[in-house]
Here is the input.
Amino acid sequence: MFLFFLNILHLSDHYKKLLSANYPFIKRVCVKVVHWHGGSLDDAAADDAEYLLGRVLDQFMADDYRRLRTSEIRNVKTFFRSCIENLFKDILAERHGKDRGGERAREFGAVGVRVRELMKRGHTTDAIHAEVAYSFGGSLSWEDVYAMEQRIKGSNALPPTDGNKVVLSPPEEGGDPEPSDFEIVDDRWNPEWLTIEKRKELLRREVLKDLEELLDDEGKVMVRLYYLEQRERKCTVSDIANYLGKTPKAADHKLRRILDGFRNHLAGKGIGPDDIL
Here is the structure.
């Protein structure tokens, strides 16, 4: 019996050191999780992060580190991150009811699920847009991604740089403006915008076809599948990897090298990549 308790004390000391060594990481994850759910790092969100950190540490230390002792931990950071996210979901459920973010993300299909994953990791809208535009095709605009984020969060906020403008028409003399006096003008449908977009589309295809001549046969196939055929067929990196008999990681690496070459070529012409891809 004495040896049993001695072993318990030894294990407790081990898990105490494990918790102490990973304390900075645990604290950062708490801030990121609260930031994603709260959408800001104001005083209230900071208080939530401190509260979450306290709850996390209490949970891990409870009953002589029982949670750590009884769990099969293969990757320490993945384990801590999962525990923190699940605990914060429980806290939110206590306050507001069950989180429906996963269900709302699935409304958008695979791209929505990916956006939610990146949101949970604390990525900015710019970073998420760059990632999903690369993985799912360049047709997704920044505003599309922002609207998707807000839907997943359960918010109806409009993008801060929304393309629509509200123009106030003069009301009847002596009266206040009525809702009907506001005309919504969508910049995306004016002739100038359409001309610019058409030029971008033509330039995109011309540049890609020129650059395609510099690639090997495999690279040409990848470009055709991922870029030139994007409007007709949505090919993901995994689709291309399966088609070519490569691993997704190898296909992704080669596509990124090709994309870097495209960007350098465009930069030499004074053209931004967003005008092409």
Observations:
- Residues 204 and 276 are 4 Å apart (CA to CA).
- Residues 1-10, 157-189 have pLDDT under 50 and may be disordered.
- The first strand starts at residue 164 and ends at 168.
- The chain has three domains: 2-96, 105-153, 191-275.
